[in-house]
Design a protein that fits this description.
Two copies of one chain form a homodimer. In chain A, 37% of the residues lie in helices and 17% in strands. With 516 residues, chain A is α/β, with parallel strands linked by helices. The interface between A and B is large, with 103 and 103 residues.
Chain lengths: 516, 516
C-alpha cells in the first residue's frame, strides 16, 4: 500500500470522506488512489479558494471535517482567504497540501516555496509527513486535531514521494477531544449576575446558536429579563418559527454601539467579546459600554449549550421561553429593492433550508423578514474575507444533499470564487444562488464615508463601482452550466425563486437592485 | 497631508505610477487619495490574484515596478500565487497591504491575521509603516528594494490610521542599485572554457534574453561552437527574425535530459542551474549530465548582458552571429490542432507583439512556428503557479498601450483568474486572448502517467477533466464585456484572429482543440 492509499483510507476511517480538490502534479498519486478507496468522494473545484470555502461550509453543516487537496504553496495561497474565514469560524478542516518529493526539496525547483510558513498563518496544527510509514498516523492526528473542540484547521504537508512509496499501512482513528464542561462555580457566578436585575445581555456565538442553546437562552430571558443577542456573523445559526427571537449584533459600529447601550453585564456564551470589524477615526474599537462588565459563561471550546442548560436550571428553573410564531412577509410587488428581495426570500424560504448569507449591504431586512420562516440554518461570513459565500453553499449542499441551499450573494464578492458555479453544475447540487446585483462594491461606498475619507472624485469612485462594463451574471452562470434568469421586479424574483426551488439542481437568479 | 497622500506622491516620484488594486475598508484613504494625485493610475481588479499577476506582467514589460493595493491578510493571500510567480521571475513589485489601525490590532478583529508572516513567504523586503511621519520614507525604501537588481517583491504593510492621519510629507526617491558587473577573472575563466572545444551550452535566463544579450550570445556561438539555450520559462524573452536561434530547455524531464546530453560545460548567464519542475520516481531531479561542469558567467543580479559582450570580445572577437531570417508558417487549413493553432499564430503574429504564454500542453510547436515572426516579446509562467497568464497580459497591456498583446491561455488555468477579462474590458486594453480549449487539465493527464500513478479509473479521471459541464468561454467573456468568438477549424481561428488584431480593445477566441 502506498502512502496516498493509506492516507485516504485513514481519513475515511476517521470519518473524513469528502475531499474538495484542486490537484497538481505532486498530488497525482493521491488522485490515483481515489480509484482504490471509493468511500472517499473527490469533488473537483477549479480554484483552491472554492475548495477551502466548500470545506468550511461542509463542516459547518456536517459537524465533521472535510479534506481539501491543494497543490504546493501557491495552491494553499489561493485557498488562504477562505481558510481565514474557516479559522475565524473555528471550523474543523483538514488540508492536504502536496509538496515536492523529499529528494527534490533542496533543488529549489520553480514551485518551491515555504508551505509550512504559509500554513502556519491559518492552521492550528501543521505537520509535514516524513515517510510512508508515518503518513497514516499523521492523517489520524490531523483529523483529531481538526475535530477536537473548538475546531481548527489542520494542515498536513504531503511530499510526493511519501504518497507514491510503498510501505504504508492504515492507522486507527485518534479520539476526538470533545468540548470541556464549564466549571460549576462559573455557572453560579453568572447566575448571580442574572439575578442582579441589572441590564444583561446573553451574547451567543460559536456552536451555541443551536435549537437547544437558543431555547435555554430563551428560558433565561423569560426568567431573568436578560436580552439575547448573537455575534454579528455566527458560523451557523439555527433560526425560524418555534425558536426564541435573538438579535444579531449589527455590523455598522454606530448601530452596534446603540444595540449594547445601557448594558451593565455582557455574558459571553461561546463567543468572544465583540469588536468592530474596523477602526474608525474618533470611534472606540468595540461596542461594549465603558461601565459594562464582561463575563464568560463559556469560552469557545467549552460546552456552551450545556452551560446554558445548567444556568437555566439555576437562574430560571420555571420559565418558559417565548418563541416566534410562524409568520411570513407578504410577497411584495413592484421595485426590486434589497428589502423587497428579503421579503420574497422570507415569503418563500422552504422548510429546512440552508441559507448562506454573503449579501453584505444588500442584506437589509433579511434576518428580520425571515425570522418567522420555517426552521432553517444560516451560515455567515465569519472572517470578513469576501468570496466565501458561493463555496460555502457548495460545501453545505454536499453535506446535506436532501436540504435546499439558498445562497444570497453580493455581486462584487461573487467574483472572487465565481468558478464555484461550475462545481454546482457538475455535482448537480440543489443550490439556488441569488446575486444581489447592485453594480458596485456598495459596502466600500459606505465604508469610505464612515472612515471619513473624501473620495468624491471620479478616480476614487472608479475603484468602488462594478460598472463599465456591468457584469452579466446570467451569462457567467450559463457559461458554467448553471441555468440562470434575471429578475428586475419583486414579482419576477418571486416567480423565478419559486421555480428554482421547485426544480432540483443548481439555479442562479440575477436580482437587479437599485444602483445597477 | 495624510499618510496615504504622501505615500502615493512618493511612489509616483519614484517612478511607480500604476496601482493594480482590490481595496477594502482599511484602504479607503488610499483610494480617496487617488483623487489628489492624478499621476497615479488606479486599475481596479475583481480579485487580488489579477492585481498581483498584472503587476508582474507590467514590470516585465515596463522595466519598473507597479504597485498593488491589497486588503489585509486574506487579500494578500488571494494574491499569493501570482506573487510566487513574480518572485520566481525576480520581478520588481511593490505591494501595499492595508491593515487595521494600530489601535485596533490588539482587539483581534475578525479580519486580523499575520500579514507579515504571509508577506514574508514571497517578499524580499517587508516593512510595517508605524507612523504617518515614516510612511513616505518607507515607500521610497520599498521602491528601491523592489527595483534594485535583480528585482524582488517589496511589501509595505499600511495600517489604516497611518493612511488617514495627517503629518506626513513626501519623501525623495532612494537610489536604485543597478546590476553589478561580473569580475573580469570570471569572464576570462569562462573564455578558457569556451576555447576548450568541448561541448558547451550557454544557458541564458533572467534579464539576459534581450536583443543585445542574444546577439552577443550568437556571436559566441558562431565563434566558439557553443550552443545557445534559455531557461524553460524565462520571465521575458525577445524573439523573432533578426535574432539568433535559441533553444528553450524543454519542460518534460526526458526531453530536457536529451537536450543537454553530451554537454561538458554548462555556462549560466543570469539563470540558475536547471532542475526538473517535479521529481519523478526513478529519475534524477535535474537534466544536467553527471560529468558536466557548471560555470556561472553571471548570477541573477549581475549584469549578464555586459558579461556576454565582454566575453564575446575575448572569446569570439571576429565572429558574426547567425540570425533567423524572417519566415512564417503557411496558414493551415482543416482540423484545429495545437500545432495548427501555433501555425495560425506564427502566420499572423503582428510586429512588436507581446505574447503571454500560458498554453501549457497546448503550446506544442508554438515557439518553433513563431521563431521567424517579426520581433516580439514572450512572457512565460516563471513559477509554475497556473493562473498568471490572463493577469500578466493585463499588466503588459497597461505597460505598453501601443503594442498588441496576445494571450495564449490554457482553459483550466484561465479559470483561476478569469475575472481579469472584466478589467480588460473596463480599461479597453488591446489584448487578444486565445483559449486553448481542450476541456481538460491535460498537463495533469500527462503528469499522472509520468509519475507512474495508475489513475485509470473513473474517479481519478474525473479530477482531471473539465467536462460535465464544459466551460463556455464565449459566454464567460461576453458576460464580462469582452467580445468573443469560437473557432472550430484552423481557418476560423485565422479569420477571427485577423479580425481581433485589426480592432482595438480586448477580444477572446475560444479555440476548440481535440479532446473538447
Amino acid at each position: 500500500m502506498n502512502g496516498a492509499q493509506a492516507l485516504i483510507r485513514t481519513l475515511v476511517g476517521a470519518g473524513v470522506d469528502v475531499c474538495f480538490a484542486n490537484p497538481g502534479t505532486s498530488e497525482m498519486h493521491f488522485v490515483a488512489a481515489l480509484d482504490d478507496v471509493p468511500e472517499m468522494r473527490g469533488v473537483l473545484t477549479l480554484f483552491e479558494g472554492v475548495a477551502t470555502g466548500a470545506a468550511d461550509g461542509y463542516a459547518r453543516m456536517a459537524g465533521r471535517p472535510a479534506a481539501t487537496l491543494l497543490h504546493l504553496g501557491p495552491g494553499l495561497g489561493n485557498g488562504l482567504a477562505n481558510l481565514h474565514n474557516a479559522r475565524r469560524g473555528r471550523t474543523a478542516l483538514v488540508n492536504v497540501v502536496g509538496d515536492h518529493a523529499r529528494s527534490h526539496k533542496r533543488l529549489d525547483a520553480p514551485l518551491e516555496s515555504d508551505i509550512d510558513a504559509i500554513a502556519g498563518t491559518v492552521s492550528g496544527w501543521v505537520r509535514r509527513s516524513l515517510s510512508p510509514a508515518d503518513v497514516a498516523a499523521d492523517a489520524a492526528d490531523a483529523v483529531a486535531a481538526a475535530a477536537s473542540a473548538p475546531g481548527r484547521i489542520a494542515t498536513l504537508v504531503l511530499p510526493a514521494d511519501v504518497s507514491w512509496e510503498d510501505g504504508a499501512a492504515v492507522a486507527d482513528p485518534v479520539p476526538v477531544r470533545p468540548a470541556s464542561r464549564v466549571a460549576p462555580s462559573v455557572i453560579r457566578d453568572v447566575a448571580t449576575v442574572l439575578s442582579s436585575g441589572q441590564p444583561t445581555v446573553l451574547f451567543l456565538g460559536g456552536d451555541t446558536v443551536t435549537a437547544a442553546g437558543l431555547l435555554a437562552a430563551g428560558q433565561l430571558a423569560a426568567g431573568t429579563g436578560a436580552r439575547l443577542m448573537t455575534e454579528t456573523f455566527p458560523a451557523r445559526a439555527v433560526r425560524g418559527a418555534g425558536l426564541p427571537e435573538v438579535t444579531r449584533l449589527p455590523y455598522p459600529p454606530e448601530m452596534a454601539i446603540a444595540a449594547l447601550e445601557g448594558t451593565a453585564h455582557l455574558v459571553l456564551v461561546g463567543a468572544t467579546s465583540p469588536v468592530h470589524f474596523f477602526a474608525y477615526p474618533g470611534m472606540p474599537g468595540h461596542p461594549v459600554p465603558k461601565d459594562c462588565t464582561v463575563h464568560v459563561l463559556a469560552e469557545p471550546g467549552e460546552d456552551g449549550v450545556a452551560a446554558l442548560l445548567a444556568l437555566a436550571e439555576i437562574a430560571a428553573p420555571d420559565a418558559e421561553p417565548e418563541v416566534l410564531e410562524a409568520s411570513r412577509p407578504e410577497l411584495p410587488v413592484g421595485e426590486l429593492t434589497p428589502r423587497a428581495m428579503a421579503a420574497v426570500i422570507g415569503a418563500l424560504l422552504p422548510e429546512n433550508a440552508i441559507v448562506v448569507d454573503e449579501a453584505l449591504t444588500s442584506g437589509v431586512g433579511l434576518t428580520e423578514l425571515t425570522s418567522g420562516a420555517p426552521r432553517h440554518d444560516w451560515l455567515s461570513l465569519t472572517g470578513g474575507a469576501i468570496g466565501d459565500g458561493l463555496p460555502m453553499a457548495l460545501g453545505a449542499a454536499v453535506a446535506c444533499p436532501d436540504r435546499p441551499v439558498i445562497g444570497i450573494q453580493a455581486d462584487g464578492s461573487a467574483m472572487y470564487t465565481i468558478s464555484a458555479l461550475w462545481t454546482y453544475a457538475r455535482e448537480q447540487l440543489d443550490i439556488t444562488t441569488i446575486i444581489c446585483d447592485n453594480g458596485s462594491y456598495a459596502i466600500l461606498e459606505h465604508e469610505l464615508s464612515r472612515v471619513g475619507a473624501r473620495g468624491d472624485g471620479d478616480r476614487a469612485a472608479k475603484l468602488l463601482t462594478l460598472g463599465g462594463p456591468g457584469l452579466d451574471f446570467v451569462a457567467l452562470a450559463t457559461g458554467m452550466g448553471v441555468p440562470a434568469t434575471r429578475a428586475r421586479t419583486a414579482e419576477e424574483l418571486a416567480d423565478q425563486l419559486r421555480q428554482a426551488l421547485a426544480e432540483p439542481g443548481p439555479h442562479l437568479i440575477d436580482a437587479v437592485l437599485p444602483g445597477r
